[in-house]
Specification:
Helices cover 56% and strands 12% of the residues. It has 154 residues and is α+β, with helices and mostly antiparallel strands. A 4-stranded mixed sheet has the order 1-2-3-4, with helices on both faces. A hairpin with a 4-residue loop joins strand 2 and strand 3 (63-68). The chain is globular, with a radius of gyration of 19 Å.
Length: 154
Amino acid sequence: MSRAKNSIATSRSENMRAIRSRGNKTTEVRIRTMFVRRALTGWKLHPIDVFGRPDFIFLKEGLCVFVDGCFWHGCPKCGHIPKTNAGYWRKKILRNRKRDALVRRKLRATGFSVLRVWECELRRSAPACLARILRSLSARRRRHARRDVAEGVA
């Protein structure tokens, strides 16, 4: 590998290593801030006892919310494969997408509803993302209320 390419690969590697999987200000912290400002309660952050470690979980409602980075999870609108070491990144992002699908299937099989919010959606319209989460919560609450009435639960 030439010196220039080696230098680019080294700096890319350092950049990627610096990206945090939790507490990312452009995604997760932004949603958490919206929840707090809205005084939304009943959510938990990164529960270790739930498969797939969702970013947020509303356990009572059975809603898992994942906030996916466009690069790491291969956003269909704006995700891209870097030109440097493209084969590696293509495989890495494909593995991430397959893992996301497995997590979604397993969570749904155990009764959870799964909502994914893309980083670009959050950047474009955070209020629309919050509205989507609130609609999902509302629908889950109505469903649980109907089930409780049908089962005679007080």
